[in-house]
Amino acid sequence: MKQRIITAVIAAAFFIPLVIIGSWPFTLTVYLLASIGLFELLRMRGLHLFSVPGILTWIALAILLLPTELSASLENTLGYTKVEITFAVVLLLLIYTVIVKNRYTFDHASFSIFGALYVGIGFYYLIETRLAGIEYVIYALLVIWMTDTGAYFVGRKIGKRKLWPEISPNKTIEGFFGGIVSAVIFACLFQMIYPITSSYMVLIGVTIVASIIGQLGDLVESALKRHYDVKDSGTILPGHGGILDRFDSLLFVLPLLHFLHFVV
Q: Are 68 and 148 within one domain?
């Protein structure tokens, strides 16, 4: 626990100022985080980022991460959209399976592209959310952190019924609901200090959904690690694991806030 707290404080001291600064330093940081996340994901499957298919996959990730304004500039310059360029990468990966005579297979290519989408879409919305306003990033982080904290302490105190033991044996149903309640309480406190919506009903509804989806995002990462028989996605954050271990919920919550038109 001591190691987790120290790492969390150091990471927050590094990340929060960049969130406040925003602009290109924040965007470059997100690119770095997403690249590490992709590296962790590919490594689970026994693939290498520093290889021909790995570099092609990173190119797909980099294109997906482009903010709306830069994406529009790219389209005006090259005449191709993000989707078209990503599709071109898919074709190149499939051609590569033929060149190497199936040492890199269709399954590998599918995992690579789906991994780029999984990591890229979530981190893309982190960039877009910061562009929409720092308050939305703070809200999303608050919901995730308070959900995790509430779930942990309620689960330890009164948790008896396992939520999904085949995927994450330590999570409990009581902790699941404790996380939601904790997120709602702190979201309402945040609304009192820094209003981000005109309706508390909207805030509470979005927070409940975001808390649930965030916990499901955490379970997705747990299921992935269990399938590939790894304890953590990485070791870059002592006591916490890898980038994907820390951003798994955020990768689901941020797109949700845009899909619900909560972030405007």
A: no
Residues 123 and 145 in one domain: no
Last residue of a domain, one of 132, 155, 174: 132
Q: What confidence tens digit (pLDDT) does each residue in 3-29 have?
A: 666 766 776 777 888 888 878 899 999
SS3 string of the chain? Answer: CHHHHHHHHHHHHHHHHHHHHCHHHHHHHHHHHHHHHHHHHHHHCCCCCCCHHHHHHHHHHHHHHCCHHHHHHHHHHHCCCHHHHHHHHHHHHHHHHHHCCCCCCHHHHHHHHHHHHHHHHHHHHHHHHHHHCHHHHHHHHHHHHHHHHHHHHHHHHHCCCEEECCCEEEEEHHHHHHHHHHHHHHHHHHHHHCCCCCCHHHHHHHHHHHHHHHHHHHHHHHHHHHHCCCCCCCCCECCCECHHHHHCCHHHHHHHHHHCCCCC
127/188 same-domain check: no
Ramachandran angles phi, psi of 101, nearest 5° = 55, 50
Name the residue range of residue 206's domain.
134-264
Q: Please report the pLDDT score of residue 159 as a whole number.
A: 76
Q: What is the pLDDT of residues 126-165, one digit of tens each?
A: 999 999 999 999 999 999 999 999 998 998 888 788 888 8
Tally of domains within the chain: 2
According to the model, what pLDDT value does residue 4 have?
64
